[in-house]
Amino acid sequence: MELENLLTKTDKLLNKAVFKSIKQLRLTIDKEILDDYIIIGCFNSFQMELLNTKTSKIKLSLDSLLKNKINHPELKLEDYKKIKRIISKPDEVKLSKNRNNCILLLKKDKKRYQVVVKATKDKKENFLTSFRFAQH
Fold first, then answer.
1. Which entry of 77, 99, 109, 115 is 20 to 30 Å from 85 by CA?
2. Sequence-separated contacts (24+) of 55-59 with Cβ below 8 Å
3. In sequence order, what are the residues at sequence separation of 6 or more whose Cβ sits closer than 8 angstroms to the Cβ of residue 2?
4. How many angstroms separate the CA atoms of 133 and 126, rounded?
5. What does the CA dihedral 112, 48, 123, 51 come to, rounded to 10 degrees?
6. Distance (Å, rounded) from C-alpha 12 to C-alpha 86?
7. What tens digit of pLDDT does each residue of 82-108 get?
8. Could you give the dihedral angle defined by the CA atoms of residues 62, 15, 131 and 26, in that order, rounded to the nearest 10 degrees?
């Protein structure tokens, strides 16, 4: 499944009703559907070492994309299409100070973007958990 298909799927689910939170939405959708994902990008060796992860692949689940679309409706398709480039060529890379096993990737491209990727505890998978306009 590619990014545009995943975005279309989220739009269809969100258009069925008005959801104010991802918790509310999760109660109405089958967990297997929420676990669908795409590979949205890959870490370079520096990013892998910084996060101490065993894989370069970064997954974007339908669940995370739905959460992101609810919390950040200002982001459009054109913004989501930039994720791969933000991951591969960030202007800044750093470990999150407030979240364990998370790395922040920042990129300035007319607007300043922030991608947050979390490694699972066993370090065998990486998931994009948040995408938004950066505050600074």
1. 99
2. 55/123, 55/124, 55/125, 55/126, 57/125, 57/126, 58/87, 58/117, 58/126, 58/127, 58/128, 59/125, 59/126, 59/127, 59/128
3. 38
4. 21
5. -60
6. 26
7. 999 999 999 999 988 777 788 888 888
8. -50
